[in-house]
Structure formats: C-alpha cells, structure tokens
Write a structure and sequence with these properties.
The complex is a heterodimer of chains A (171) and B (187). Chain A has helices at residues 16-42, 47-60, 82-94, 131-150; strands spanning 66-68, 79-81, 99-108, 117-126, 154-165. With 171 residues, chain A is of the alpha+beta class. By secondary structure, chain B is mostly helical. The termini of chain B are far apart. Classes of the chains: A alpha+beta (171), B mainly alpha (187).
C-alpha cells in the first residue's frame, strides 16, 4: 500500500519533534482503526439493499448458450440454457454431504443435440472425508443430472478438489 | 439448494465464496455481501457523513463488485477489495456534493448528519476522534479516512480525487494537524 512517494512515514528519525509527530500519527491511525471497528459493530443491517442488488443480478444473470435436446427439430426445439444447467449441477453437487462447489462449467459440443455432454467442477471438501469417495459421489450425481436435464449421452465429468475445509468454520 | 448445503455456503471461506461468485453464482455473492456489509457501510459512512449516501455507496459498490469479481486476482483478499470498491463509490459521492475546489481550505466545519446516539455511545478518545473528524472539510476528511482507515496509497487517493499526490499530502498534513490538536487531551 505504501508507495515510494511516502517514505517519511516508514522511517524513524532521530529528530525528537519528528518522532513526537510520528507517534501522534501512529496513535491516530490506531484510533481510526478502532473507530472503524466500532462503527462496523453498530452499522445497520442492509438486508433490503442486498436483496435489491441480488434480485437485479438474478434477473440479469447470463443465461449463456442454448443446449438443445436430442430428438427435437429446429422448429420446436427443446433447449435448456447453459446458465440454468450450471445452476442445477452446482445444486446437486452441493447436496453431496461435505461438498461446496467453487466452480462449475459444462463441456462438450453444446450446439449438437446428439453430442456427449460433460462437466468440469472444482470443489472444496470437508477435511474428514475420503476425497476419492466424495469425488465419485459428485461425479455420479452430476452425470445423472446432466442426462436428466439434456437427454444427451454423458461425457467426461472432471472433478478437481481445490481445498479442504473444516465444516462449521470459515476455512 | 438444501438446508445443509445452504449452511455450508454460509460457513464457507471468503476465498471459496469469491471464486464461486466470480463463476456466476448469485447465492455465494449474497453470502459475501451479507458477511461484509457492515464494514462496507461503516467505511462509506465515515467517508460521506451521511446515512443516505452511505447506503447508496454500498448499493453501487455491490453492483460494481458483482461485475468486477471475475477480475479479482486474490479471492482470499475479497474483504479488503470490497472495502476499496465501496471507498471509490463513496468518494465519488463526496466529490459530486463537494467539488474539489475546497481541498485547500484550512478549516470549514462540515455539515454532518451524525447519528443522534453516536456521541452518547462513543466516549473517550474514540468519541473525540469521531467529533474532530466531522469538523474537517470534506476532502481532508476523505483523504484521512481513505489513508488511515482504508490503507490506500497517496497515489490511489490522488487518482480517486482527481488531483495530484502533493495536494493529497498537504490535505493529509492539515487533517492530521487538526486531529492531533483535537486529541491532545488523550495522549
């Protein structure tokens, strides 16, 4: 944060007046931090503001590409959007005990209704669980959901474990 | 999302939530916003001295944060990043209300809408600091709050205020002098 333009703040000088000024500055800085912490504790809850913003975001959320389902023609083609599909995959993977999804993307030729469709996920796993078992459960559920949502043959499901977390704590 | 999955999201680390929100998940963004809203609001209030402006600054900052999250390079540092985003939004509001020509004014009492119970609840050195901050001209106060509460560099402060580093240094020196005098009884 401190750039070359403000070297005086970082140096202790032998000048007693300057030292006094630096001590006063340091004291002010500490009080400023305490004041901010105090303010934070008594700030009003902005639930209404947050709901307004997230409501707007949800309405504008990117749908992504259309993923056509097999057996339908161009005239009345059934599609699921990529955005909705990713949301569903996140949900089913989150429902595996001990899993929180970090990233989720679908892979494959989305435009071709006959092509295989797969997914790529990065997850965080509760530290006490067996990673291979958990990743296997995630793969199974994601595969089943992909088939249910798109009616296409399943492709590769890549699951990467990003980190481990202690459940009930902010890891 | 099931209840237990929702609980796990609420307990997830800032880093995980930031990665997931950047990936397009609004639920994760909402958890992040709820977790850090009070810090954002507190910082915005110290910059704007206004409840309405502080609320607006937080709202603008959340919209901006959602759009810019994919560019965040250190997701674990999302709390500090959100603070910088809301700092910019709040500073913009102050600039709109108080054009920069008052940056060189030595002393001009600000019109703050101090919350009525603020002084009563804050006592001692913190109370004196809060009171003295409100007597600073708006741009001096903004410089001091960005620097000492937000940890912003002189260069970033100058950029946000549309001025140069030496002007910021001058404004900060005057702000510190006023605040130090006001705090003399609390050394």
């Amino acid at each position: 944060m401190t750039g070359p333009e403000e070297p005086a703040e970082q140096q202790l000088t032998p000048d007693p007046d300057r030292r006094r000024a630096e001590r006063a500055e340091q004291r002010l800085r500490e009080l400023g931090q305490q004041l901010l912490e105090h303010d934070e504790r008594r700030s009003p809850d902005l639930a209404g503001v947050i709901e307004a913003v997230t409501g707007q975001i949800r309405r504008e959320a990117r749908a992504g590409r259309d993923v056509p389902m097999p057996g339908t023609d161009d005239v009345d083609r059934l599609v699921v959007t990529e955005g909705a599909l990713r949301g569903r995959l996140r949900e089913v993977a989150d429902d595996v005990p001990g899993v929180v999804v970090a990233r989720c993307a679908v892979q494959g030729d989305l435009d071709d209704p006959g092509a295989r469709i797969g997914a790529r996920l990065a997850i965080s796993v509760a530290w006490s669980l067996r990673l291979s078992e958990v990743a296997g459960h995630v793969r199974e559920r994601v595969r089943a959901e992909l088939v249910a949502q798109t009616g296409r043959p399943p492709g590769e499901i890549d699951v990467e474990v990003l980190d481990l977390h202690a459940f009930g704590e902010q890891a | 999302m099931g209840q237990s999955a929702r609980d796990r999201l609420a307990a997830a680390s800032d880093e995980l939530l930031a990665v997931r929100a950047a990936d397009g998940d609004v639920d994760a963004f909402e958890v992040l916003a709820r977790r850090h809203q009070r810090l954002m609001r507190a910082y915005a209030w110290r910059l704007t001295s206004s409840d309405a402006d502080a609320d607006d600054a937080v709202q603008n900052a959340l919209v901006l944060a959602w759009q810019r999250l994919p560019t965040l390079r250190e997701p674990a540092a999302v709390r500090g990043w959100l603070m910088r985003v809301v700092g910019r939004c709040a500073t913009d509001m102050v600039r709109r209300r108080h054009p920069m020509d008052d940056i060189d004014v030595v002393s001009e009492p600000a019109t703050a809408d101090l919350q009525p119970d603020d002084r009563a609840e804050l006592s001692g050195a913190l109370g004196s600091l809060a009171e003295a901050l409100e007597t600073l001209p708006p741009t001096q106060r903004v410089c001091w709050v960005l620097r000492e509460m937000g940890g912003e560099s002189y260069r970033d402060i100058a950029e946000q205020l549309g001025t140069n580093v030496s002007t910021v240094r001058g404004a900060l020196a005057r702000a510190r002098a006023t605040l130090t005098t006001a705090m003399e009884g609390w050394r």
